[in-house]
Specification:
The protein is an alpha/beta fold. Helices cover about 40% and strands about 15% of the residues. The chain has 13 helices and 12 strands. A 7-stranded mixed beta sheet has the order 2-8-7-6-5-3-4, with helices on both faces. It has a 3-stranded antiparallel beta sheet with strand order 9-10-12. Helix 4 links the parallel strand 3 and strand 4. Helix 1 packs antiparallel against helix 7. The two termini are about 30 Å apart. The structure holds pyridoxal-5'-phosphate.
Length: about 400
């Protein structure tokens, strides 16, 4: 038995994406920049994919730029807004403390280059407050970059309200929507989103491909110099098969979104209710304002890493923190940002369930997490101290 409950790290490719990609490799393998028919067939596939992606988020095809994934899209969006700001003497950027590292590390570099950065508090529920955002906007603010949904705790930000505030103050708004695209309804025009990052492998498309939506009229800076692909904004021969797979996966995700979300949400809530029965545990992030597939808990007195390994022995693929931070001993910056103390943040578990999760699988997860947590607490010195009263319980 294997239950894959790490869909926030990556997803299994869907059949529609695989089927769409194979002809790109076997038949339409030409270079889209080549003038002969084989090249132009590839070009047509590329432009059809661009149109499909644009219509999935309410954009125009020319506002979609294909990239190598979410990280590149984040880097390019933020660098572009920063460069535009600098031209008019605006070098202040607003973000949050619990963004993905693709955003946080880019901001850190920009700080070294002279930009000032304000990171908004995300509070205990993992949500920014729009009034606090508005209060943080200054004369010299050139960009607000706030993620759509968090990759660790799944909380969904008030994106439309944030977009409205940014529009009112004439500040560019970028959102890292890697966890949201294909999972939540998005309309970039209605929500006043100027730039949006997405990645195919988070919605059952292939890895190594994503896109950046950029509202018409915003000048991008290119990160990769070379040929004139993507209107000169992203050099390099296009990943045609990957892009076609991305579009096919997104089309399928959008078509089934309501049905999938209803099912996942129901199973998510059963999973949360089951895990809440474990003593000295707590759900991380708001209980309802979260991605339909995201469950994230802290269990006091244990190490998340040991929990993961033992769950793996029982066929459950889960995560502690994000895939990017696993392997390092630092607790998740996301859990620290919502106010969890180090010791508690160490004992975290993220289960990101998929569309095809069954109630039996949820029961299996609940049962096994309960057993493994109890087992680990059995020989945890931290737990012993808590039980003897030497240390105080926090949860
Ligand atoms: C996965 C992820 C990224 C990075 O996307 P890649 O395509 O893997 O580079 C960025 N932001 C968020 C929120 C993510 O979940």
């Amino acid at each position: 038995m294997r239950i894959y409950a790490d869909n926030a790290a990556t997803t299994k490719m869907c059949r529609a994406a695989i089927d769409a990609m194979i002809p790109c490799m076997e038949e339409q393998y030409g270079n889209p920049s080549s003038l002969y028919v084989l090249g132009q067939e590839a070009r047509e596939l590329l432009e059809q994919a661009r149109a499909d992606v644009a219509s999935a988020i309410g954009a125009q095809p020319r506002e979609i730029l294909f990239t190598s994934g979410g990280s590149e899209a984040d880097n390019q969006a933020i660098r572009s807004a920063a460069a535009l700001g600098k031209k008019s003497g605006k070098m202040h950027i607003i973000s949050t403390a619990f963004e993905h590292h693709a955003v946080l590390h880019t901001l850190k570099k920009l700080q070294k280059e002279g930009y000032s950065v304000t990171l908004l508090d995300v509070h205990e529920d993992g949500l920014v407050r729009v009034e606090e955002l508005e209060a943080a906007i200054r004369e010299d603010t050139c960009l607000v970059t706030i993620m759509y949904a968090n990759n660790e705790i799944g909380t969904i930000q008030p994106i439309s309200e944030i977009g409205a505030v940014c529009k009112k103050h004439g500040v560019l708004f970028h959102t890292d929507a890697v966890q949201a695209v294909g999972h939540l309804p998005i309309d970039v025009k209605k929500q006043n989103i100027d730039m949006l990052s997405s990645s195919a492998h988070k919605f059952h498309g292939p890895k190594g491909v994503g896109f950046l939506y950029v509202r018409k009229g915003i000048r991008l800076t290119n990160l990769i110099e070379g040929g004139a692909q993507e209107r000169g904004l992203r050099a390099g021969t296009e990943n045609v098969a990957g892009i076609v797979g991305l579009a096919a996966a997104l089309k399928e995700a959008v078509a089934n979104m309501d049905k999938n979300a209803a099912h996942m949400q129901q199973q998510r809530d059963r999973l949360i209710a089951g895990l809440q029965e474990i003593p000295h545990s707590a759900l991380n992030g708001d209980a309802t304002n979260r991605l339909p597939g995201n469950v994230n808990f802290c269990f006091e007195g244990i190490e998340g890493e040991s929990l993961l390994l033992l769950l793996d022995d029982r066929g459950i693929c889960a995560s502690s923190g994000s895939a990017c931070t696993s392997g390092s001993l630092d607790p998740s910056h996301v859990l620290l940002a919502i106010g969890r103390v180090h010791d508690v943040a160490h004992g975290s578990l993220r289960l990101s369930i998929g569309e095809d999760i069954t109630p039996e699988e949820v029961d299996y997860i609940i049962q096994n997490v309960k057993e493994v947590v109890a087992y680990l607490r059995g020989f945890s010195p931290v737990w012993r101290d808590l039980m003897s009263g030497k240390a105080k319980f926090i949860l």
